Amino acid sequence: MVRSIVRSPVLSLGLVCVALLLMVGIHQVRGEDFDPQSLIGEWQGTWSLMAQRGVTGNYYITIKNVDGEKVYG
Predict the structure, then answer these.
(1) What is the mean pLDDT of residues 50-70?
(2) Looking at the structure, do residues 2 and 25 belong to the same domain, yes or no?
(3) What is the pLDDT of residue 25?
(4) Which residues of 19-42 are buried (b: 16+ CB within 10 A; e: fewer)?
(5) Average pLDDT score over residue span 51-61
(6) Whole-model pTM?
(7) How many independent structural domains does the chain possess?
(8) Do 61 and 44 meet the contact criterion of CB atoms below 8 Å apart?
(9) CB–CB of 61/73 below 8 Å?
(10) Whole domain around residue 26: which residue ranges?
C-alpha cells in the first residue's frame, strides 16, 4: 500500500508552518512606513535585457518631486 504524501500529518503541519511564516514576513515588510521623499535625488545604475545577454546600458535619473504615486523628474 502506497501512502499519499499529501495525507502525511507531518508534511501537512510543515506546510501550515511555512504558510504562517510567509504571512507574518509579508505583513512585516508591508507594515513598515515608507517615506516617498527619500526617492528625491540623483540615481544611476545599469540596465540589461534578460532575453538577450550582452545588451546593457547605463541610466541616470534625477527625481525632483514625489506627489502620492506620481514621481516627477
Answers:
(1) 87
(2) yes
(3) 66
(4) eeeeeeeeeeeeeeeeeeeeebee
(5) 87
(6) 0.47
(7) 2
(8) yes
(9) yes
(10) 1-32
Contact between residue 64 and residue 72 where contact means Cβ atoms under 8 Å apart: yes
Integer Cα distance of 68 and 38 in angstroms: 13
Beta strands (DSSP E) in 1-73 are 41-48, 56-63, 65-67, 70-72
Q: Do 24 and 42 sit in the same domain of this protein?
A: no
Task: Cell numbers for 63, please give them.
Answer: 527625481
Cell of 27: 505583513
In the block, residue with C-alpha cell 506627489: 67
Q: Report how far residue 33's alpha carbon sits from residue 23's, in angstroms, rounded to the nearest whole number.
A: 18
Go through the chain and tell me how many residues it has: 73
Alpha-carbon distance of 59 to 46, in angstroms, equals 6
**In angstroms, rounded to a whole number, what is the distance separating the alpha carbons of residues 5 and 3?**
6
